[in-house]
Amino acid sequence: MRPKRLVDAVLFDTFGTVVDWRTGIAQAVAEFAGDAVDANAFALAWRGRYQPSMAPVRRGERGFVDLDVLHRENLEATAAEFGLPLDRQPSDVDWLNRAWHRLPAWPDSVAGLTEIKRDFIIGPLSNGHTALLTNMAKHAGLPWDVIIGSDITRTYKPDPNAYLRTAELLHLPPERVMLCAAHNTDLAAAQKAGLRTAFIPRPTEYGPDQREDLHATGPWDVIGRDIVDLAKQLREHVA
């Protein structure tokens, strides 16, 4: 008899859920700028422009552009805010902008993903584009089965099409796909689109003063301590 499964694919929000963007970006900023700026504050400010920069694309006011373009625009705005000159070799600025391709995994990510991969299709469901997510996977050792970037779905979460087109590309109905995220708003949008949901907390994603997403705030299908714990809970659904 075929094993009973809650879903067939478990997909993951990536920035903040699977990888530690704040540490990775702050390290790159420190290497680029030295003591010229507070690297952690710069990383937080750069990330703070992330959602606002995608909003015009989601509203149809701007054609789709990938995160390398948006990150570069946001980098230039953040550098101007902090008084950091970007008058370096273009390759140096490109290296800094591509720090989003080189983020470190959280300590539990690779082990947890490897365990989930035994029984489920795994991959990112991220606003990152395919090249970014592929480079990130190679850098951090993320064992994805499939990578479907936002350049394929041509939209950004929480637009419902970001979730639905990904499920469609896997030839799965939405209810056979689970999104795991450390962000309750992402899960709410995925659930509204018909996906199953799993929450894990990343209480230091934004540093010691983080106030949001410290715990689950919605009726998610699974709530885990981390990705390893999520793997243990999902195993109960593969008998």
Automatic annotation (TrEMBL):
InterPro entries xrefs: 2-HAD, HAD-like_sf, HAD-SF_hydro_IA, HAD_sf, PGP-like_dom2, S-2-haloacid_dehalogenase
Positions in coiled-coil regions: none
Keyword Hydrolase tagged: yes
Pfam family, one: Hydrolase
GO MF, one annotated term: hydrolase activity, acting on acid halide bonds, in C-halide compounds
UniProt entry keywords in alphabetical sequence: Hydrolase
SUPFAM superfamilies referenced in this protein's UniProt entry, alphabetically: HAD-like
Presence of the UniProt keyword Hydrolase in the record: yes
UniProt similarity note: Belongs to the HAD-like hydrolase superfamily. S-2-haloalkanoic acid dehalogenase family.
UniProt cross-references to PANTHER family, sorted A to Z: HALOACID DEHALOGENASE, TYPE II (AFU_ORTHOLOGUE AFUA_2G07750)-RELATED (PTHR43316:SF3), HYDROLASE, HALOACID DELAHOGENASE-RELATED (PTHR43316)
Name this protein carries in UniProt: 2-haloacid dehalogenase
